[in-house]
Design goal:
293 residues; 7-stranded parallel sheet; Alpha/beta knot; alpha/beta; binds S-adenosylmethionine; elongated
């Protein structure tokens, strides 16, 4: 659909007519069955779509140009939340707006206390080979990240520090699972995501004219001693159980260690990522004058 068509549809659909909203009351309805299947990665991947819950997140996604396919609203939402704009956008994209009892809402998202509104959006992955790196750019690459909470937190932190993207290397947890999306608190809509097989990442790194910084418990340098400013940086973080693979270690220009004093074996992956990202971006993030004594 062209942008003009979409705009026309949007204008004419600003106030959704009651007839356009499809009321569904049965769990056996095939649309509901399809929606329920989206809690399983295989089905999300097949259709390249995912679910999000809550009006705030839905409006965030729409504001950032993400494509909505379906909006599902609980009957009890009427008069409690103002979803008219979201519904109009959904109609404008040729999407479906469903009204369902709250128990169906809970069965779709597998929650006892479901939100009153949820939506289905198209997934987005960007082309890593098309990235043009500039000095000051920071990307974070995650080797086989397993935990959805860690991944969501890292995407959120990457957003907070102004990183340019998150690169998922190897077989990782799904960034589009409900749990990860929730943990990103909306940052999934503003941080570009890239997917790379380990072998592709290794090949790419051979021609990269920047610094790949790996993090490792046996890292050879203290993370505060590295010059991150003179070239683009790709920060590589290891898997929660196994750390960085040997292959990935071998392409790191620097291998950084965050010192530890206590008895803990290692830091949590998301915490270590946060420490590294803030150090790398230290000079790019202006000091807040109000806090300078
Ligand atoms: N058992 C794993 C190992 O031996 O590497 C621990 C992995 S740790 C939970 C997950 C990742 O967080 C590591 O691969 C590394 O990227 C980062 N990390 C955690 N603590 C770190 C530290 N003190 N210095 C550098 N990186 C660290």
């Amino acid at each position: 659909m062209s942008h003009n068509d979409e705009q026309k549809n949007y204008e004419s659909a600003k106030t959704p007519r009651a007839g356009q909203v499809k009321e569904v009351t049965s769990l056996a309805n095939p649309i509901i069955k399809d929606l329920r299947s989206l809690t399983v990665k295989k089905y999300r991947d097949q259709q390249k779509i995912f679910m999000i819950e809550g009006l705030e997140l839905i409006e965030d996604a729409l504001a950032q140009g993400w494509s909505i396919k379906t909006l599902v609203v609980a009957k009890s939402a009427k008069g409690k939340i103002d979803y008219e704009q979201a519904a109009a956008r959904c109609f404008a994209r040729g999407g479906l707006v469903l009204e369902v009892p709250e128990k169906i809402m809970g069965s779709i998202t597998r929650r006892d206390n479901p939100q009153l509104i949820m939506a289905v959006f198209e997934q987005q992955y960007h082309d890593f080979n098309a990235v043009r790196f500039a000095r000051g750019d920071v990307y974070i690459a995650l080797d086989r990240v397993r935990d959805p909470g860690n991944l969501g937190t890292i995407i959120r932190t990457a957003d907070a520090v102004g990183a340019k993207g998150v690169i998922l290397v190897g077989d990782t947890t799904d960034p589009y699972s409900l749990e990860t999306v929730r943990a990103t608190m909306g940052s999934i809509f503003s941080v570009p995501l890239y997917k790379q097989k380990e072998s592709d990442f290794l090949n790419w790194s051979k021609q990269f004219k920047g610094l790949v910084v790996g993090t490792h418990l046996q890292g050879s340098v203290d993370y505060r001693s590295i010059n991150y400013q003179s070239q683009p940086v790709v920060l590589l973080m290891g898997n929660e159980q196994q750390g960085l693979s040997d292959g990935l270690v071998s392409v790191c220009g620097k291998l950084a260690r965050i010192p530890q004093a206590g008895r803990a074996d290692s830091l949590n992956l998301a915490i270590a990522s946060g420490i590294m990202l803030y150090e790398i971006r230290r000079e790019a993030l202006p000091m807040d004058e109000r806090t300078v004594s």
